[in-house]
Write a structure and sequence with these properties.
This protein has helices at 6-26, 54-67, 87-96, 101-104, 135-142, 161-171, and strands at 43-47, 79-84, 109-113, 116-120, 126-131, 147-153, 172-181, 201-202. The protein has 203 residues and is an alpha/beta fold. The chain has one domain (41-202): Rossmann fold. Strands 3-4-5-2-6-7-1-8 form an eight-stranded mixed sheet, sandwiched between helices. Bound molecules: adenosine-5'-triphosphate, magnesium ion (MG) and zinc ion (ZN).
Length: 203
């Protein structure tokens, strides 16, 4: 199947750059529902309709985490993951898109290496990008290392939901998860929370 045309890619890029310019000019600030809940939690589930600001909220949360105290000693203070329905979705929504990390934080750059794609910050923090569409994707998650923060983008649309979620949880040793989903998705990501909205904390 042919990929997007060059013209479409250029238009997207212009749109993303316009979104970034608008954010910088206006000064993006989170709305109350985009501020992580207080207290000791490991999972924050954002279950809200289209355009509610879920992706923006998770991007902002991850950047605040990067700017916060180091989770690990050494040159990589935070080793994180962004998981989407596919690898392309995760890159597009989590980084490149109008609500992704790049639109919030121009210091973050996408780097593709032999081992995969990571988002890299000047302080050494990195977020590796994953899909949840195939057994190969879940294998990659298994070998993705121990993370301190994970962003689960549109989790109910993950084809390998159970396997990918399990691998993600094994890898998340000490940190937090930001999960987001529009409620119209057929599958119920609350299966993994054991709690129902409006309580945004996962056990
Ligand atoms: N705090 C904010 N202040 C002003 N505008 C915002 C804020 N948060 C999000 N928006 C705007 O709302 C729109 C939707 O945001 P976002 O993409 O994060 O929503 P979403 O819930 O992830 O949507 P979808 O369900 O389509 O993935 C964007 O155009 C964004 O600019
Ligand atoms: Mg979104
Ligand atoms: Zn961390």
């Amino acid at each position: 199947m042919a990929g997007p045309s060059t013209a479409l890619l250029s238009a997207r890029r212009l749109y993303d750059m316009a979104a970034l310019a608008r954010r910088v000019a206006e000064g993006w600030a989170p709305l109350p529902h985009q501020i992580p809940p207080p207290g000791d939690w490991y999972g924050w589930l954002l279950l809200a309709g289209r355009g509610a600001g879920k992706t923006d909220a998770c991007a902002n949360w991850m950047i605040e985490h990067v700017n916060g105290p180091a989770c690990m000693p050494g040159p990589i203070p935070h080793w994180m993951a962004i998981i989407g329905p596919t690898l392309g979705d995760a890159v597009r929504s989590g980084y490149e898109g109008p609500s992704g990390i790049r639109a919030h934080d121009p210091r973050a750059v996408k780097v593709t290496r032999d081992g995969g794609t990571v988002i890299h910050w000047p302080n050494g923090s990195e977020a590796k990008v994953f899909g949840a569409h195939s057994e190969e994707d879940t294998d990659r998650l298994r070998s993705g290392g121990n993370t301190c923060a994970v962003w689960c983008e549109e989790m109910a649309a993950w084809r390998y939901l159970d396997q990918a979620y399990a691998q993600m949880r094994f890898g998340l040793r000490t940190g937090e998860i930001c999960t987001e989903d529009p409620p119209e998705h057929g599958r119920d990501s609350r299966d993994h929370s054991g709690q129902s909205p409006p309580d945004p904390r996962l056990p």
